[in-house]
Recover the amino acids of this structure.
């Protein structure tokens, strides 16, 4: 059974600081997705990482994938309050479109 | 706005009752997925339909069923409701791998 673990579960950061969220998954997978969820809201797609070494950046967020280590990271640069949300990674595999989600990382940016 | 719509937004009902949740996918998306989000279980995949046919099943209880209609909208039916079924139910749609799944606003179900 595919398992996806994220850490930390909770992260409180000061504005302007950098930090990284980690996502580990248990079996070989072809694709990794990052989503953002604001409290009481839906999930918003952030990144799709399709191959080993893939790196994608959008604004202050950068995601990377190491399929050999079964690890993805979401790096936050110079955090701002608007980035406060819960971030989920999710994994599927070729021919199986079911997404298995991590536990989520609740990020709070403190002014 | 993802383009996926779900109704109703909120639903309050009693144990033992039956409810139907509705989802309309983004234009052009043939795949519809249902997920349940709760505090204790997190985000769990329930079921996927592709162009009217069931394609994958996850941790869906026998009391729950779903279908996708010719116009591609989907319904999730929850019956004999229990307190533990209280959760946020999301529908998502996609054109297929490797494109991401786009999530609707969700239906918040409260079973009293």
């Amino acid at each position: 059974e595919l398992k996806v673990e994220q850490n930390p579960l909770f992260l409180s950061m000061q504005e302007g600081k950098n930090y990284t969220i980690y996502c580990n998954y248990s079996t070989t997978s072809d694709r990794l997705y990052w989503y953002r969820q604001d409290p009481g809201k839906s999930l918003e797609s952030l990144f799709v990482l399709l191959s080993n070494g893939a790196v994608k950046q959008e604004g202050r967020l950068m995601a990377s994938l190491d399929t050999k280590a079964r690890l993805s990271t979401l790096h936050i640069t110079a955090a701002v309050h608007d980035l406060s949300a819960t971030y989920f990674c999710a994994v599927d595999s070729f021919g199986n479109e079911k997404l298995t989600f991590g536990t989520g990382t609740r990020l709070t940016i403190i002014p | 706005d993802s383009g996926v719509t779900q109704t109703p937004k909120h639903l309050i009902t009693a144990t033992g009752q039956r409810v139907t949740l509705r989802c309309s996918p983004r234009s052009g998306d043939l795949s519809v997925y249902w997920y349940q989000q709760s505090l204790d279980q997190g985000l769990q995949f329930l079921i996927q339909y592709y162009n009217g046919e069931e394609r994958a099943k996850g941790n869906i209880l026998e009391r729950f069923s779903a279908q996708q209609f010719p116009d591609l909208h989907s319904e999730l039916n929850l019956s004999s409701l229990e307190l533990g079924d209280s959760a946020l139910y999301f529908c998502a749609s996609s054109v297929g791998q490797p494109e991401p799944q786009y999530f609707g606003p969700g239906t918040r179900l409260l079973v009293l």
The two ends of chain B are 31 Å apart (CA to CA).
